[in-house]
Structures
1.
Amino acid sequence: MWLHHTDDGDQEREGHTLIAACTCGNGYVDTVLEGERYLLQILTELRATSGRFLHNSGWPDCDSQRRLRAWGDTRP
């Protein structure tokens, strides 16, 4: 699980994104955080799934966004 901070110098576009593995095991899911309360809510929900986002079969799915691969695997 990662917390990514984005800051392009414009305070209106500054923010945080939480990135965590999907429960399907094929990729990562990210969500833009709209404040500390939202982060705490998401972390509480992720506790039930061992820190993984629930798989959503809708498009785009986690598999098409970011693949989980072994270290050094160069496949796209």
Note: Strands lie at 2-6, 15-21, 28-33.
2.
Amino acid sequence: MNTLHDPLPSFIDRSQTEAALYRVAVSALTWRADAEPGYSIEDEQRWCLAPLDGIDLGLPFRVLVVDTILDPSRNRAQLVQALVALSDG
């Protein structure tokens, strides 16, 4: 199982990580839990990770995406670092 501290192979195209980061940024700026009935943070997380479709990044990474949406100031540096590590190896 990979964690954020385990090195992952550099098999993810940089454009994929940039697209995921863009989506997290949009979500962080627009997220409102009460915006739409039946809409959840899990839906938002899936949308953010769609550019990385088919790649299992593990639970810690998915949690980091949600944490960044909910509290971008606290979590953005760690998310950017994790995404850079994925694209640059």
Note: The mean pLDDT is 84.
